[in-house]
Amino acid sequence: MVRSLWTAATGMVAQQTNIDTIANNLANVNTTGYKTQTNEFKSLLYQNIQTKTTTANGENKPTPAQVGLGVRNASISSVFKMGSLLASESDTAFALDGKGFFAVRGADGNTYYTRNGNFQFTLATTGNMLATTEGLPVLDTKGTPIVLDSKYVVSNITVSKDGSLCYPDESNNPQPIGIQIGVFQFNNPNGLEKLAESLYQQTAASGQAINEATDTNVEKTSVIQGYLEGSNVQVVDEMVNMIVAQRAYELNSKAITASDEMLQQANNLRR
């Protein structure tokens, strides 16, 4: 009976984490580039009550008696399914149609990755720098911040599908200026470490970043100007998942109540 108390308690803890994950998904339903997170569960150790043995007649009983000791959260993984494209009036709003990520330079000097293409031009010492809304520099295919000379009027900058920045010539036809927004892929995006502000950090599990501009073996991602990628959170699915998690939490609490009542009855037998 004491075993059942702890087993049900592990279920309540696991479902509480599940509810926290669902709540985080719902909270980020309007976050640009956010990816839905899902809980993965695994069972704990099993305790042998009776090993393989034989009956009184000598017949084999190949199946032992085992009792599970509960459940725990194995991981919280992201679903990198593409979100809906949302039109934006900003000329520096970009959505990615494919598996790629934008690269940005963090305040600590490290490179981070994101699907949030809500960028803007900010003043830099040598011109106008393309940056995130938090001021982090956006990197090009060479891994350097994108900075335009002051001779360029940033409102006239357009971006092609391969991420090349273009500027109109004398005939008002957009021409590449030799700068391309960097787009990178990972063999295992689920291995990326999730950070705040829709940023991801490369890890050993994700593998090295693959530069789409230099690797010909990957499917290219299209850069779409004037659009942003919305979150891929499905509110209806999350509400259903929340109901299921609440019911599972309730069942585990009832198991604790039942075990407590059985212990109380056992104590009353001594009276």
Which helices and strands, and how do they pair?
Blueprint: H1 2-27, E1 37-43, E2 46-50, E3 53-54, E4 60-61, E5 65-68, E6 71-78, E7 85-87, E8 94-97, E9 101-105, E10 111-114, E11 119-124, E12 127-132, E13 147-148, E14 158-159, E15 164-168, E16 174-180, E17 183-185, E18 193-194, E19 199-201, E20 210-211, E21 222-225, E22 227-229, H2 235-268
Antiparallel strand pairs: 1-6, 2-5, 3-4, 7-22, 8-21, 9-10, 9-17, 10-19, 11-12, 12-13, 14-15, 15-16, 17-20, 18-19
Helix pairs in contact: 1-2
Number of beta-strand segments = 22
Mean pLDDT: 90
Helix coverage percent: 10-25%
Using only CA atoms, what is the Rg? 27 Å
How many distinct helices? 2
SS strand fraction: 25-35%
Structural class: alpha+beta
Q: How is the biggest beta sheet arranged? A: 6 strands, antiparallel
Q: Which strands sit side by side, in order, in the main sheet?
A: 18-19-10-9-17-20
General form: elongated
Q: Enumerate the spans where pLDDT stays under 50 for 5 or more consecutive residues.
A: none
CA-CA gap between termini: 20 Å
Write a concise keyword list for the protein shown above.
271 residues; 2 helices; 2 domains; six-stranded antiparallel β-sheet; alpha+beta; three-stranded antiparallel β-sheet
Describe the structure in your own words.
The chain is of the alpha+beta class and 271 residues long. It contains two helices and 22 strands. It folds into two domains: 2-80 and 234-268, no CATH class; 85-229, no CATH class. 22% of the residues lie in helices and 33% in strands. The chain is elongated and about 100 Å long.
